[in-house]
Amino acid sequence: xxxxxxxPGDLVFFNTMRRAYSHVxxxxxxxKFIHAPRSGAEVRVEDMSASYWKLRFNGARRVLSEEESASxxxxxxxxxxxx
Length: 83
Known about the structure:
Helix content: 10-25%
CATH superfamily: endopeptidase domain like (from Nostoc punctiforme)
Number of helices: 2
Order of helices and strands: EEEEHEH
CATH architecture: Alpha-Beta Complex
Distance between the termini: 30 Å
Number of strands: 5
CATH class: Alpha Beta
């Protein structure tokens, strides 16, 4: 998902340990995301436009519901059922 197309609930990934996708957060909307900085630390909300996060942004993914996923699959026909 392109950064401009982010929606609340999308997963946002960052390179925080010199490797891609080493940190993940949940996009909240309005350029903000929620994440746990490290084990034992308080969960917090961050601004994705802050230089630290802006430089480390790797990309985003959207998790679809079962209904949304099913609507993307080709319809099974009687001649070619999907099992």
